[in-house]
Design brief:
Layout lengths: L1 E10 L2 H20 L2 E7 L4 H7 L7 H5 L4 E6 L7 H15 L4 E7 L17 E7 L3 E10 L7 E7 L2 H17 L4 E6 L7 H13 L6 E6 H10 L6 E4 L1 H14 L7 E5 L7 E5 L16 H13 L3 H14 L16 H13 L1
Parallel strand pairs: 1-2, 1-3, 3-12, 5-10, 8-9, 8-10
Antiparallel strand pairs: 4-5, 4-11, 6-7, 11-12
The structure holds glycylglycylglycine (GGG).
Glycylglycylglycine binds next to α4 and β12.
Length: 355
């Protein structure tokens, strides 16, 4: 029997609710498939842990996580503790410490869901956004001077390296080459940002020569938002910087129906460290505890995790179950315009997995 060791970090807000739902689906899958097992170790890290211990995760956290095959993560963010502490104390140290430099965000309109775009009715919107996950504005460079004085200065330096850009470009080209349309859109802002972004353009052209079968086009990020709305069918695989892709993928998920259906994998493509899978949404404390969080993104990211672990049949079964139950509006949570609870959607998915 194949066994996979999974570290579970529900963290904050609705992260706890959707991960509980995701784990139920994983249990149903193991029982149904019968040829693999998963062991789950829970880590209580997050904002409550910070309140009790003064840190978001244990000092030896990365060392302890290293022995796992993958990490199933919920969400981070707190109404009181600043994001600069919660994000930089848990999610980013894991992504950066494990060099999960490729953040993969598939987006499509699941059966039964409605895009806010009138001209989208299904296959017109089928994208994978690749977010560079280790550099840019998230490199942590910058500073503050003359705090509290009128002369106060704050800088946030976007850092791009040849190694970092080359490897994400290669990853995105390979991914595009593996999809039927073999189409890659490279997003930058190289008209206004004339150093690092121009380097992106240059490296993109160099890497592109290694992939003659991939059709490449280039967009500035501002124009890209318009194209995503007006001509979604013209896009397939998309690669952008850490910050740009973060923004674009929230837009993408909303265009596919809701942020509640957007999954992501933080991948170490070289397989040196565990990769981490999470819904793209945050902790959503406005709905925490109400039992109405949408678990679909967490199921979908669970399918990505299973694929990553080589459990392709189980991943397919899970996505088939998700795509079966989303057809019924009775399984739509409020973010999708329905009134289903997290528990109802979870029960429906588990039932579909079993049948
Ligand atoms: N599950 C995703 C999550 O918790 N995101 C919280 C967040 O603040 N992310 C900021 C970012 O990804 O840039």
């Amino acid at each position: 029997m194949r066994t996979h060791k999974i570290a579970v970090i529900p963290a904050d807000g609705i992260g706890k609710e959707v991960i509980a739902a995701g784990l139920k689906a994983m249990e149903a899958l193991q029982a149904r498939c019968g040829d693999f097992a998963m062991t789950f170790e829970h880590f209580p890290w997050g904002s409550d842990y910070y309140r009790a211990h003064g840190r978001m995760m244990d000092a030896d956290g990365l060392e302890r996580l290293k022995k796992f095959d993958a990490i199933y993560f919920g969400a981070v963010g707190d109404p009181v503790i600043p994001d600069s502490i919660t994000l930089w104390g848990l999610r980013l140290p894991i992504c950066q410490g494990f060099d999960q430099y490729a953040n993969v965000r598939p987006t499509r309109v699941l059966p039964g869901l409605t895009s806010p775009l009138r001209h989208v009715n299904g296959p017109e919107l089928d994208w994978v956004i690749v977010r560079e996950n280790s550099e840019g504005e998230y490199a942590g460079h910058g500073g503050r001077a003359h705090r509290g004085f009128p002369e106060e200065v704050g800088t946030e330096t976007a850092v791009f390296t040849r190694t970092g850009v080359t490897r994400i470009m290669r990853f995105a080209h390979k991914l595009a080459a593996s999809r039927p349309r073999k189409l890659l859109t490279i997003v930058t802002k190289s008209n206004a940002q004339r150093h690092g972004m121009v380097m992106w353009d240059e490296i993109a052209a160099e890497v592109g020569r290694e992939f003659p079968d991939v059709t490449v086009d280039k967009m500035l990020v501002d124009a890209m938002t318009q194209r995503m709305v007006l001509n979604p069918a013209s896009l397939d695989t998309i690669v952008a910087t850490n910050l740009h892709a973060d923004i674009l993928s929230d837009l993408a998920a909303a265009l596919a129906g809701s942020l509640g259906v957007g999954p992501t994998g933080n991948i170490d493509p070289e397989g040196r460290f565990p990769s981490m899978f999470e819904p793209i949404h945050g902790s959503a404390f406005d709905i925490t505890g109400k039992g109405i969080a949408n678990p679909v993104a967490t199921f979908w990211t669970g399918a990505m995790m299973l694929d990553h672990l080589g459990e392709h049949a189980a991943a397919k079964r899970l996505m088939t179950a998700v795509e079966l139950i989303t057809r019924d509006p009775a399984n739509h949570t409020p973010d999708l315009g329905g009134n289903a609870s997290t528990a109802k959607v979870t029960d429906a998915v588990c039932e579909a997995i079993r049948s």
